[in-house]
């Protein structure tokens, strides 16, 4: 049974990833900050016995280490860094930039992916698929930035992209692949109700990209519809 560990599975895109992979018979290690309060995820886990729930605040390195200790002998095919934050228009805008929140955005959107890769590296190396994935955003692309603003989010996702490219280079000799994905503009709490696509469409598309992944694709930045994106 293939295995996947996903962060931020209590709502939005992460919950949909957990749903689709569980339905397809994967063993899903579904992580979120408060499993005891994650009603939708609990219901999913009641339906699919191949889902287990794990407490994980990705900003808390001690919690990441604890989870890695609990799962130390578990092969992980895909390590999926999904959890992310957008601080909100006021905190993200020139003139009212929230520098404390900027640090928090980096901790969740950037540093967590590096820390997760460090501590789960042996698990991924033992998996068959050997893939580390981060949900980035086209907003992290400097080439695409024609509208400015969103300083915290754009910079933390751009830095995430840099982390993932270094991981791709460093891990290629171990035959571990790295993918940077853009989910599209998705109807979730973060994307809002006016977004272009459903979480179901986004996740189906990203799963297709991951299914097709070959080591030669490592370090690429790809959208849910398979389109290659500029850095
Ligand atoms: N929606 C879009 O249009 C869009 C576009 C581009 C990229 N993305 C990226 O896609 C990913 C998922 O986004 P989404 O739309 O599903 O967002 P969302 O609906 O806001 O959900 C965010 C998820 O991240 C979790 N999270 C936040 N901080 C965390 C932390 N410190 N530790 C663990 N989990 C934490 C949240 O958990 P809590 O409930 O505990 O806060 C929640 O499960 C993010 O990385 C986002 O940047 C989304």
Short key terms for the protein model shown above:
7 helices, 7 strands, seven-stranded parallel β-sheet, binds NADP nicotinamide-adenine-dinucleotide phosphate, globular, Rossmann fold, 15% strand, 231 residues
| Fourth-tier CATH superfamily name | NAD(P)-binding Rossmann-like Domain
Q: Classify the fold: give the CATH topology.
A: Rossmann fold
Shape: globular
Strand order of the largest sheet: 3-2-1-4-5-6-7
Helicity range: 40-55%
Q: pLDDT average, as an integer?
A: 98
CATH class: Alpha Beta
Detailed description of the structure:
With about 230 residues, the chain is an alpha/beta fold. It has a single domain, classed as Rossmann fold (3-Layer(aba) Sandwich). It is about 40% helix and about 15% strand. It has seven helices and seven strands; from the N terminus they run βαβαβαβααβαβαβ. It has helices spanning about 10-25, 40-45, 60-70, 90, 100-125, 150-170, 200-210, and strands spanning about 5, 25-30, 50-55, 80, 130-135, 175-180, 220-225. It has a seven-stranded parallel beta sheet with strand order 3-2-1-4-5-6-7, sandwiched between helices. Helix 6 links the parallel strand 5 (about 130-135) and strand 6. Helix 1 (about 10-25) packs across helix 7 (about 200-210), helix 3 (about 60-70) runs parallel beside helix 5 (about 100-125) and helix 5 runs parallel beside helix 6 (about 150-170). The longest helix is centred in the middle third of the chain and has 28 residues, at about 100-125. The chain is globular, with a radius of gyration of 17 Å. The termini are far apart. The chain binds NADP nicotinamide-adenine-dinucleotide phosphate. NADP nicotinamide-adenine-dinucleotide phosphate binds next to helix 1. The site of NADP nicotinamide-adenine-dinucleotide phosphate (NAP) has 29 residues, from helix 1.
């Amino acid at each position: 049974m293939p295995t996947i560990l996903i962060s931020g599975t209590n709502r939005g895109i992460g919950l949909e990833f957990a749903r689709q992979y569980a339905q397809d018979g994967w063993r899903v290690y579904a992580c979120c900050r408060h499993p005891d309060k994650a009603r939708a995820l609990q219901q999913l886990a009641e339906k699919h016995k191949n889902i287990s729930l794990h407490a994980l605040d990705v900003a808390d390195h001690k919690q990441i280490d604890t989870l890695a200790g609990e799962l130390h002998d578990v092969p992980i095919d895909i390590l999926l860094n999904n959890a992310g934050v957008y601080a909100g228009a006021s905190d993200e805008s020139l003139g009212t930039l929230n520098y404390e929140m900027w640090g928090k955005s980096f901790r969740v959107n950037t540093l967590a992916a590096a820390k997760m890769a460090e501590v789960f590296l042996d698990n991924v190396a033992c998996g068959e698929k050997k893939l580390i994935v981060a949900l980035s955003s086209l907003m992290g692309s400097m080439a695409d930035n024609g509208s400015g603003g969103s300083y915290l989010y754009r910079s933390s996702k751009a830095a995430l992209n840099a982390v993932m490219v270094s991981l791709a280079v460093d891990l290629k000799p171990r035959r571990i692949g790295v993918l940077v994905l853009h989910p599209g503009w998705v109807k979730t709490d973060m994307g809002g109700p006016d977004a272009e696509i459903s979480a179901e469409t986004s996740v189906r598309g990203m799963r297709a990209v991951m299914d097709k992944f070959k080591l030669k694709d490592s370090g690429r930045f790809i959208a849910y519809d398979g389109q290659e994106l500029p850095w």
